[in-house]
Write a structure and sequence with these properties.
- The protein is about 75% helix and about 0% strand.
- The chain is mainly alpha-helical.
- It has one domain.
- It starts with a helix and ends in a 16-residue tail after the last helix.
- The C terminus is likely disordered.
Length: about 180
């Protein structure tokens, strides 16, 4: 326990900056996901609404995890850092079990059915959903996810980056969006 307290004290700023990045990162991811839904014209379809639902779950899981990062830095009561770290391990399961699949399944369906990005991105999103969900189930009975499993979560960052770069590069090639005119009364 003293080593844990010393680590928290020594890396206090880095932990808080990491928590900030984990809060801001999903916001930017979700904004990009909503942009893809909008560009695909799916904002009024079930898959569009399910993407909104999945984004909400992802954001909540991230914010809960961040809360425990910050609470782990408090030393009153003495056991709070230890308890917080245990809760972080529990919350990390939610990313694999529900958060990632709930976002990637509907977004993948949208991308497979649209020309906003190459269809491969839709299939890859569906594949990521299956992988994350499968890992969530496979390690459900482990109280702490093994490091290689949590490292797999980093793969999704490559998907988002590649999707963003691809969208930027094919900006002129994507189908134009037509906006319905508002009715004049």
């Amino acid at each position: 326990m003293p080593e844990l307290l010393a680590f928290g004290h020594q890396h206090y700023r880095s932990i808080l900056w990491g928590a900030w990045m984990q809060a801001v990162g999903p916001v930017l991811i979700i904004l990009f996901a909503f942009t893809l839904v909008f560009l695909a014209g799916a904002e009024r379809r079930l898959a569009g609404w399910m993407t909104l639902f999945g984004a909400t779950i992802l954001m909540m899981v991230s914010l809960i995890e961040i809360t425990f990062y910050m609470s782990a830095l408090h030393t009153d009561p003495d056991t709070l850092p230890f308890i917080s770290l245990q809760l972080i391990a529990a919350v990390q399961h939610l990313y694999f079990i529900v958060a990632a699949p709930a976002l990637f399944v509907p977004l993948g369906v949208i991308l497979v059915r649209s020309s906003v990005l190459p269809r491969a991105f839709g299939y890859l999103a569906l594949g990521l959903a299956v992988i994350f969900g499968g890992l969530g189930v496979a390690f459900l009975l482990d109280l702490t996810l093994p490091a290689p499993v949590t490292a797999v979560a980093g793969v999704q960052a490559l998907w988002w980056f590649a999707a963003a770069v691809t969208l930027l590069l094919r900006g002129e090639k994507a189908d134009p969006i037509t906006f319905p005119r508002a009715r004049e009364h």
